[in-house]
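Hi everyone, sorry if this is the wrong subforum. Our group has a chain we'd like a structural model of before ordering constructs, and none of us has done structure prediction before. Sequence below.
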Amino acid sequence: MDVLLGIDDTDVLGHRPGTGRLARDLAEYLVANGLVRANGVIRHQLLVDPRIPYTSHNSPACVLLTVDDDNRGAAFVRVSETAAQYVAKRSADGADPGLCMVGAAHVPDDVVAFGWRTSSEMVTKDEARALAERHGITLRELGGTGDGIIGALAAVGLTADGNAGRFLELAGGLRDLEGVVPASALRTRGLTLLSTSRNGEIVPQDVLVDTGNWVRPRLVTGRPVLLVEPTPDGWRCFDRKGHHGAHEPES
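Answer:
Right subforum, don't worry. Here is the predicted structure as tokens:
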């Protein structure tokens, strides 16, 4: 069964790792213990507002996993318990971590709607808790105020929607894709290449793409989509570190 595992509020200012890095470490830990297969990690962006006590960018993460069990089985529970213990242990002192876990096929529409709401308006912990209880979704406060359950549930909802967020990691690997890479090699990693030019032409298999040492595809229609743009010097990734809003510390 494919599973979505959201986490948030695991760090404080000046503390490393951030939530995105912790999510990647969590995926590796669960794989190393033979509990899951890891399919990727997605970063989401929620509302940035001075009334919200986020650390730096209000960005939860969702880990995409495969568990050999159903939504209520022993393996599912074991993964949930192991993940909760790991996140609680790795979170910073003074953080307010939360965790959400649910089968990807069992995310109801109102949880997806909750995720979209968090990107544009204030929501409360009580709303998140009530929503999870109504649908029997695993949602756990792991320390501090437990406010992280808001972002954890939102990350699951937005990932289930399939049209928000950016991949921090993918099963085929992203972080070794550096320099200039053939389009065919990017597709081999499971990436869909989408041209940003107004003509929307197909990106040829044999062209070279300048990655800028930062390949971070977006989640579009449930797939990892890498935006690429033609320039006078050739093709390059449209999303580049420090450009087009991608200015937050890398996780």
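For your construct planning: Confidence is low (pLDDT under 50) at residues 244-249. The radius of gyration is 18 Å.
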